[in-house]
Specification:
The protein is mostly helical and 321 residues long. The protein is built from 13 helices and two strands; from the N terminus they run αβααβαααααααααα. The protein starts with 8 loop residues before the first helix and ends in a 6-residue tail after the last helix. Bound molecules: adenosine monophosphate.
């Protein structure tokens, strides 16, 4: 994830919670992509503190640094190095077709080259570790497809070098929509005060935001005609509690929206409480996060360097050995 904006319950229920669940099934690397964050201007001091905050949130959510690597992209120079080499096998037209680029560049007066190259850097993040599986949400599947295309093109031009990532592991987590506008995905970059619930929001703030969430003019929950706002509140409740659909129906059918919101708020407060407590413990131990990040980078650096060395040799670039 990018260390920009505030992580919200969409990031947690749609991605992070899922990562925690699968971390023991794979040899996993969770990367904090600060080089991707600077494809849009970031305040330097803020970026520095967001990197640490994001790492602490990964750990607080249950990412276990003993079995899993947590690292920062810019701490391993091979990411940027490989990205450059991959730009040299990536046709311009492929990048112009990327939906995320079109969306993010649409309202900008100046579109940075980094934003255009964003997916190539992401391909480098994946191919550097010869990753077989990439756990992403549906908004990122096009970039994983592109990564496959880049890997295949490189392999056919220069000989077998990269593992072509076979799957983008489907996210089983919920897709959470904005509380103020439930037709839009909850997003870190949206500005409305009532749009997202940040993982570090206090119980009071969580309650206030949920009580103000958009619903509709019906008096209560009717499972036959759920409006996007009510459906979203129910999804949030279900994702935090793990209730079955039958349980949800039995409990919420006919409930007035005010009561529904109170229960969703309490489920959210209770669901985030352990994470928030662990977060406070983690950040109050001086040097702890920094140590995890240093160890993470040191663990993966030999793999990353070996891939770059191999790519250089394949391409005929200068290598010392
Ligand atoms: P982003 O906030 O776009 O950097 O996304 C980080 C991760 O969280 C990605 O895996 C996304 O697919 C996931 N994600 C972001 N927003 C949501 C959302 N509203 N609901 C579910 N998953 C989300």
């Amino acid at each position: 994830m990018q260390p920009s904006g505030n992580l919200h319950i969409g990031n947690y229920l749609g991605a992070l919670k899922n990562w925690v669940a699968i971390q023991h099934d794979y040899e996993a690397i969770f990367c904090i992509v600060d080089l991707h964050a600077v494809t849009e201007y970031q305040d330097p001091a803020e970026l520095r503190s967001k990197i640490r905050e994001l790492a602490a949130l990964y750990l607080a959510a249950g990412i276990d640094s003993k079995v899993t690597t947590v690292m920062v992209q810019s701490a391993v120079p091979a990411h940027a190095e490989l990205a450059w080499m991959l730009t040299c096998v990536t046709p311009f037209g492929w990048l112009g077709r990327m939906t995320q680029f079109k969306v993010k560049s649409a309202d900008k007066e100046t579109v940075l080259d980094g934003l255009f190259q964003y997916p190539v850097l992401m391909a480098a993040d994946i191919l550097l570790y010869q990753a077989a599986v990439v756990p992403v949400g549906d908004d990122q599947t096009q970039h994983v497809e592109l990564t496959r295309d880049i890997a295949q093109r490189f392999n056919s031009l220069y000989g077998e070098t990269f593992v072509v990532p076979e799957t983008s592991l489907p996210m089983v987590g919920a897709r959470i929509m904005g509380l103020d506008d439930p037709t839009r995905k909850m997003s870190k970059s949206a500005t409305g005060a009532g749009h997202a619930i940040a993982l570090l929001d206090s119980p009071e703030v969580i309650r206030k935001k949920i009580m103000r969430a958009t619903t509709d003019s019906a008096p209560g929950v009717d499972f036959a005609v759920l409006s996007p706002g009510v459906e979203n509140l129910l999804s949030i409740h279900q994702a935090f509690t793990g209730w079955s659909s039958e349980q949800m129906r039995a409990h919420f059918a006919g409930m007035r929206y005010g009561d529904l919101k109170k229960q969703v708020a309490e489920a959210t407060v209770a669901g985030l409480d352990p994470l928030q407590r662990r977060y406070q413990e983690i950040v109050s131990e001086p040097g702890y996060v920094e140590r995890i990040l240093r160890e993470g980078a040191a663990r993966v650096e030999p793999v990353a360097d070996a891939t770059v060395e191999l790519v250089k040799r394949r391409m005929g670039l200068f290598t010392a050995s």
